[in-house]
From TrEMBL:
Its EC number is 4.2.3.4. Keywords: Lyase. The keyword Lyase applies. It is an enzyme of class 4 (lyase). The gene is aroB. This is 3-dehydroquinate synthase.
Amino acid sequence: MRSLCVDLGQRSYPIHTGTGILADPSLFAPALSKGPVAVVTDSNVAPLYLETLQKTLKALDKPSLTIILPAGEESKSLDNIQEIAGRLLSAGYGRDCTLCALGGGVVGDITGFAAAVYQRGVAYIQVPTTLLAMVDSSVGGKTGVNHPLGKNMIGAFYQPQAVIADTDTLDSLPEREFRSGLAEVIKYGLINDQGFFSWLEDHMDAVLAREPDALTKVIRHSCKDKADIVARDELEGGLRAILNLGHTFGHAIEAATGYGQYLHGEAVAIGMVMAADLSRRLDLIRESEQDRIYALVKATGLPTLAPALPVADYLGFMRVDKKAEEGRVRFILLRGIGSAVITGDVPPAAVTQTLQAFMEHGHA
Ligand code: NAD
Ligand code: GLY
């Protein structure tokens, strides 16, 4: 087991990673408030890992209420915030309770938001069980739900008490979900860690084979990169926006296809190769760098083609982006592998060319 810290002054918290740690009460104890615990999980994860977590909490004399949401992105809704609050109120839970998010990014995001707003804020713990949640969504305190008009449009920055990532849970993760998580891993190499990008190029076979050493390196390195960025810009006043590389195109792909056709990481993967293409069109990166990015995303088995839709549809969805300022879409682009830049100064014609190139041919 290894721990690292997200350094946020009074709101600092540990990220524990290791095998079998879901069964370790000593990691949970310091993160729990005085009162009772409610575990929020989903219908896929509950049969796999709920019993182990319940035993751990019982060992701490914390029998828990369980709230099981249907698996899937549709569960990240305000209706389910109402449902969670209703269950907590019916059970008489007060401000001294702790919520425990056992699952992927969907469970983590909605549980974190429920914790942020229930009785104006209660404690919560992230217990991520997907690769995406371990390397990204469980760290950094972005919580929220979707609105029919846009993804993650209602939410709060609200940090957990701890992140406890048991890598054994990845054994049951379907291959497609695993690869989807790797898109966010590649993102860290692209935005600020050239050495990590090169390491991924050399070791992707071992990562895809889920070799324990390679997997551990991927998770710990990603968490450290994310923790460093969050510690420098918790509320996304500037720097933190680079974590959205690929998301401007990616969120548009998810929204335009009705959230379900593409997994989040798959849409981000397509978005990242499109951002690389746009960066090359603006002479920010060389063609050889664009080729390397495309090759790594391909080698990971992630998609690189955007669904064929009218350009105007994409542009419409891209405007509904939290990074937009004064109605202007802002992009995260690359100034070489390992260096990202945030800009609203992109000629619309170049954006259209990138969109057209990826709908028609893939690698422009
Ligand atoms: P998810 O939570 O839907 O999990 C993916 C699927 O895997 C689900 O069907 C789930 O039931 C199943 N599952 C989870 N753990 C499993 C396991 N160990 N074994 C077998 N099946 C398992 O999706 P995700 O990819 O984890 O997260 C995507 C969500 O995260 C999106 O809503 C996205 O917006 C959000 N996100 C948030 C942040 C953030 O900073 N808060 C960052 C990135 C993504
Ligand atoms: N996943 C983007 C962020 O946490 O800022």
